[in-house]
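Please go through the protein record below and explain what the tokens say about the fold. Record follows.
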Amino acid sequence: MPSSKAQKKKEGRNGDTYQRINFLHQAAHFVSINGDQTLAREYGKQLKRIANGSVLRLESDVKSTLCKNCNSVLIPGLSATVKLKSKREQHLIKTCLHCGAIKRRNTKLKLQKKTKIADVETLSLNDQMETE
């Protein structure tokens, strides 16, 4: 279920497309784990083609698991090597084992916008009885 207004708006316009992209990503991941890398790359290629054709942005989680060069699913230890480096800033380096392409991703935590929570006053049962 979509939780935010932006997600509801996205799914309203292109719900079928997002579902298809999600299915292809899950299928590519599953097939890659089971050993058929060529089929997984084909699913990744279709996934990117659908997103580009319908002018949709892929989520960053999906983007970070696909190789930019050969479209294979980057699974640590199976189809990619993962290193954590910290020369200037701490970053994650994923190297595709099929084509050798490198992906770098900053691991610095982004601060989330703080939301104000209304103060709720709680009364115990004894307090309620005293007021009556």
